[in-house]
């Protein structure tokens, strides 16, 4: 069994280094949803969530009909960081468009479930530093191989690296079995020093 897992991990890592994989990841997979209808997010839910969101919060999302949800594994398929409130650029995220400036609404209406996390170890001064750090990643490319470091960043990795003192104490579990430690949206949810501020699934 261990041998088979090793073979699978090597194959997956090899696949992630190919041009075909990169092309699919940027130009095909993000656009595949197994429905022509909207997500289940509605305005009332969005407004309740928006009322509690603050800069320094982490947003985790899931769209049950999206192909990326099946491929990423875990309970959540995307993570983003709130850098401001009531502006054109409220949320930083890493997408197939690389570093992306979004709003809370952009994330919410592309999801069935959204969770707002707050780190219990972030004080006001450190929160500002993490926001500045996150903003400094503008121009960084998406990390197609999920390797820790700031040369390229996945969505959860951007949040993880913004927390440069590692106050989250995030979980680096290999959720999908690629044979290396990495940070996933679910790993952020399972971080030791976070609490759930809001979960649309609880409504």
Q: What's the topology here?
A:
Blueprint: H1 2-16, H2 19-27, H3 43-52, E1 58-62, H4 67-72, E2 78-82, E3 91-95, E4 98-102, H5 104-108, E5 113-119, H6 124-135, E6 141-142, E7 152-153, H7 155-162, H8 185-189, E8 194-199
Parallel strand pairs: 6-7
Antiparallel strand pairs: 1-2, 1-5, 2-3, 3-4, 5-8
Helix pairs in contact: 6-7
Summarize the structure.
This protein has 203 residues and is α+β, with helices and mostly antiparallel strands. Helices cover 34% and strands 18% of the residues. It has 8 helices and 8 strands.
How would you describe this structure in keywords?
203 residues, endopeptidase fold (from Nostoc punctiforme), six-stranded antiparallel beta sheet, two-stranded parallel ribbon, globular
Helix content: 25-40%
Please identify the oligomeric state: single chain
Number of helices: 8
Outline the low-pLDDT stretches: none
State the major sheet: 6 strands, antiparallel
Kindly report how far apart the N and C termini lie: 42 Å
Q: What is Rg?
A: 17 Å
CATH fold naming: endopeptidase fold (from Nostoc punctiforme)
Give the strand order of the largest sheet, numbering strands 1, 2, ... along the chain.
Answer: 4-3-2-1-5-8
What do we call the CATH homologous superfamily? endopeptidase domain like (from Nostoc punctiforme)
**Count of strand segments:** 8
């Amino acid at each position: 069994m261990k041998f088979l897992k090793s073979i699978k991990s090597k194959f997956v890592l090899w696949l992630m280094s190919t041009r075909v994989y990169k092309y699919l990841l940027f130009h095909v997979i993000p656009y595949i949803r197994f429905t022509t209808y909207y997500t289940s997010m509605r305005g009332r839910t969005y407004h309740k969530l928006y009322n509690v969101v603050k800069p320094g919060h982490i947003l985790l999302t899931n769209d049950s009909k999206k192909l990326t949800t099946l491929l990423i594994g875990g309970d959540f398929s995307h993570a983003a960081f709130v850098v401001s409130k009531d502006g054109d650029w409220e949320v930083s995220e890493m997408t197939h468009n690389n570093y992306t400036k979004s709003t809370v609404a952009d994330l919410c209406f592309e999801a069935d479930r959204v969770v707002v996390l707050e780190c219990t170890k972030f004080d006001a001064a450190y929160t500002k530093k993490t926001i500045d750090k996150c903003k400094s990643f503008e121009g960084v490319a998406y990390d197609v191989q999920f390797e820790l470091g700031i040369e390229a960043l996945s969505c959860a990795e951007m949040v993880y690296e913004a927390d440069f003192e590692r106050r989250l104490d995030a979980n680096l579990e290999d959720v999908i079995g690629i044979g290396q430690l990495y940070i996933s949206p679910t790993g952020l949810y399972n971080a030791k020093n976070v609490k759930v501020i809001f979960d649309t699934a609880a409504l």
